[in-house]
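Q: For a teaching session next week I want to show students how multiple molecules come together into a single three-dimensional assembly. I've collected the sequence lines for a complex. Could you give me the predicted structure tokens for the whole thing so I can convert them for display?
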Amino acid sequence: MIEIQNISKSFGEKKVLDDISTVFQKGQTNLIIGQSGSGKTVLLKSIVGLHEADEGNILYDGRDLLGMNLRDQKTLRREIGMVFQGGALFDSLTVEQNVRFPLDMFTDQTEAEKQDRVDFCLERVNIVDAHHKFPSEISGGMQKRVAIARAIALNPRYLFCDEPNSGLDPLTAIVIDNLINEITKEFDITTIINTHDMNSVMEIGEKILFIHKGKKEWEGSKEDILRTENKPLNEFIFSTKLTQQLKK
Amino acid sequence: MRFLVHVGKYGLLLKKIFSKPEKVKIYYKLVLQEIELLGLNSIGLVIIVSLFSGAVITLQLAYNMDNPFLPDYLVGLGNRDTMLLEFSSTIMALILTGKIGSHISSEIGSMKVTEQIDSLEMMGINSAGYLILPKIIAVMLILPLLTIMSAFLGILGGLIAGPLAGAVTVSDYLDGITYVFNPYYVTFSIIKAFFYAFLISSVPSYFGYHVEGGALEVGKSSTQAVVTTSILILVFDLLLTQILLQ
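A: Of course. Below is the structure for the complete assembly, covering every listed component.
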């Protein structure tokens, strides 16, 4: 479980996050949604510590990230898997080497054990014949799947995904969504996904946090979202004719 | 003011680079990879530039010293001292800044804008240490060797071109390069190479590591890195010459 309490963050004079509090439950797919520029990426990066929040607390199963020293933060980060928007695979390493990378850095496993784990993770994301290809040689969807495989290599307790569907076709996007959702249940981890893809919201959004102009505007489930009267959320979610018909 | 900000951020980056590595064995492998990538791949350039420059310096010295009062062996001596004191260390360092420095800056800059550095940090890895320290060690190991090689090849270039062009005889040239030879010049050259190696690897790393934006900014930072490193090399050349040749 990850609990954030009264998180605020400014860049210079501009307040990007304003007093946000919520709880992200374990074994659940939690979504942060909002328009571009609403502050959701800053919120995600603040939760993982890539941006330092100006105020508030970020509790990972009771452990406050902001109160930790650097060593404890590093230890905590080894319990976190993160999938970046562009995949962020290392260009100079093959698919297999990318997934093996955290194992090489942080475990004392034998070569055979590492290979087993790499094979398991790649198989879990349905990558079977691209082990020796470089990231530039595989499609965007495959890159995202490899990034997920790398993120779960060390058996994380927390999984973060920053817009995992951006740049993907709807079919591949659903595959990625379902994969993340399945992994969340299978390994019983706390997953937080940053997205503005409405398909994701309707497909896997068990807990949804809507950020608007840097503030928490609404939270609930995908079932609640169809009944909400919140104006900014309605404008955001039901902005197309298709979604308006869906609501009716 | 902006200069001081850069100096401060550069200092903080160095502190991060030289903090304790996560797994020494991994760093050892990375150093070997960087030696190949940054050092061994530069040997061809060093050979061509040094041979031709040594040849040209010899011919120009011979042309300018065409005087019966000046002994011919001075051509060899002049080329040797030019190579050892300035060319093989400083001029080679400036040339290699264009190759190695821009490579380092654009590599790290590209990793920054594609979130690969964030990805390392998220895994709990000291990204500055992991990416930059092996480059600094590799360049500091290989540049002094390239410097010695460059001096040798420059002198060899003169030995080939001088007699071929009829500018100096082989025996006069050999007399010149052995005449009042001061071994300290070699030490001086190696000391300078160590300083330049640190600049060539750390300054472009700094520029790459602090890139914000996209491909355009990566290109700009690469250019800035080469210009800044070149100026710093010249400043250090002046300081080191003043300090070490007194």
